[in-house]
Write a structure and sequence with these properties.
Elements: E1 7-9, E2 17-19, E3 23-26, H1 27-30, E4 31-34, E5 52-55, E6 60-61, E7 64-65, E8 71-73, H2 75-78, E9 91-94, E10 96-97, E11 102-104, E12 112-114, E13 118-123, H3 130-137, H4 140-149, E14 156-157, H5 160-163, E15 167-170, H6 173-218, E16 227-230, E17 235-240, E18 253-256, E19 273-275, H7 280-283, E20 294-298, E21 302-307, E22 313-315, E23 319-324, H8 331-337, H9 341-350, E24 368-371, H10 374-417
Parallel strand pairs: 5-12, 18-22
Antiparallel strand pairs: 1-2, 3-15, 4-13, 5-8, 6-7, 9-11, 9-13, 10-14, 16-24, 17-23, 18-19, 20-21, 20-23
Helix pairs in contact: 6-10
């Protein structure tokens, strides 16, 4: 993509240079921003099955509003504030929790207003296009602005008096429309590629699961007789960490929760919680972890299994730790078997609960496992490792290509809305 012929300094570090004919403004000068405030906040019991739509942050999906699942409110509530009565062509943006989710209202199926947590954004004149603003707010310019100005620890907020300070680079309205048309076309191509690659990863994961399920329940030779025994029969140690929730700290001993335990591994990045070193012995009084111990989640999520690969951790509620009797059971084999459909289906049959399925520790002895000889267990482990190495390699390569596509998408949007590339002849 070729650049513009001449550039000038924008005066904003993260925008950089702009084409000579482009301008810059702050949202507060050219955009109307409104949200539901104060006493107007809705109560849960005011949501009804019909009437005017009331858009919440959970209704945002892929730059649109999913009207099918949206709440409704009474006509009286809809009429409370005309400023947040949604119109076709409006741009919506979430300001609480996950801030910065965007939705363009291309088609309005019926009357609609906003719940708290959402801004409606409307240009004051024809100087700015709503569709162009959508792409500016989708760019790294806005994400950088959020990083600089967002506040709060658990839930972050974007306040209106802060949001209004956002600097917007913009060309003439014709070029804005060309930028919007170009980005819409190009990002659809990129998103389709990403979707194809994500589907490919799902197929690879299904292939891995099929392999594990087959060899864990049938062995390497399908007609080989394998003894079925109670799951708990050859466990030498079992620790259930239910009880009082430990006090969390900003640092100390890493607390592995059920969220960290995935199928076959511990994800230390998805959730980071800590307890004080002084509390470690009390929290772990039911048993300390050793490398190779088996971890099993009893609820939220149910049935995930992984082996301990770091013994300097604490374990939270909804996690049970097992140690195998190595004379009969290889822990690497049992963690494979527990991922199989054969074992997971047993868990589901014994599970209880409506909102969150869980299994009681007292029912674990009802679970059955296939027990080949130690020699055959080792062969199964190696067989799965060999077969999965190619699958894992393909998954890693595909995940890397997805990340590169996402980076390219981000860079393309930012380049287009700051005039680093001239899209007028290709839009």
């Amino acid at each position: 993509m070729k650049p513009y012929s001449e550039y000038k300094q924008s005066g904003v570090e993260w925008i950089g240079k702009l084409p000579l004919e482009w301008n810059r403004t702050k949202l507060k000068f050219d955009v109307i921003i409104k949200a539901r405030v104060g006493w107007q906040n809705l109560r849960t019991e005011e949501f009804i099955d019909e009437g005017a739509y009331c858009i919440t942050g959970t209704d945002f999906k892929d730059g649109k509003i999913c009207w099918k699942n949206a709440y409704h409110v009474s006509e009286e509530r809809y009429e409370v504030d005309t400023h947040i009565q949604v119109k076709e062509g409006d741009l919506l943006i979430t300001k609480d929790g996950t801030i910065g989710k965007l939705a363009l209202i291309d088609v309005l199926p019926d009357k609609a207003c906003l719940n708290s947590g959402i801004f409606v954004v409307r240009p004051k004149s024809t100087k700015l296009s709503t569709k162009y603003l959508y792409w500016v707010l989708s760019s790294s310019l806005f994400s950088h602005f959020i990083d600089l100005h967002s506040t709060g620890s658990t839930i972050i907020h974007l306040y209106q008096n802060v949001f209004e300070k956002l600097d917007i680079p913009f060309p003439d309205i014709f070029t804005q429309n060309e930028v919007s048309r170009y980005l819409n076309k190009e990002t659809i191509k990129i998103d389709n590629l990403i979707s194809e690659k994500e589907n490919f990863i799902k197929l690879l994961q299904e292939k891995r699961q099929t392999l594990i399920s087959h060899v864990a329940s049938k062995g390497l030779i399908s007609n080989l007789p394998i003894k079925e025994v109670p799951f708990t029969k050859y466990l030498s140690e079992q620790s259930d960490y239910r009880g009082k929730t430990p006090n969390k700290t900003d640092s100390g001993v890493l607390l592995v929760t059920a969220r960290n335990i995935k199928m076959g591994f511990i994800d230390y990045e998805c959730s980071k919680e800590y307890i004080a070193e002084a509390d470690y012995e009390e929290v772990m009084r039911r048993g300390l972890p050793n490398i190779g111990d088996l971890l099993f989640t009893t609820e939220a999520p149910l049935g995930n299994v992984a082996l301990v690969d770091n013994d300097s951790i604490a374990l939270a509620q909804r996690v049970i730790r097992f140690r195998t009797n190595e004379n009969y059971l290889n822990s690497k084999y049992i963690v494979l078997l527990m991922q199989s459909d054969y074992f997971q289906n047993q868990i589901k049959k014994l599970a209880q609960g409506i909102t969150a399925q869980g299994i009681k520790a007292s029912k674990l002895n009802q679970l059955k496992v296939y027990l080949p000889t130690l020699e055959d267990q080792s062969k199964i482990i190696q067989h799965v490792k060999d077969k999965n190495s190619r699958i894992d390699s393909l998954v890693a390569e595909t995940e890397k290509s997805i990340e590169l596509l996402k980076e390219h998408r981000t860079a393309l949007i930012s380049a287009a809305v700051t005039g680093k590339i001239d899209v007028r002849e290709v839009a």
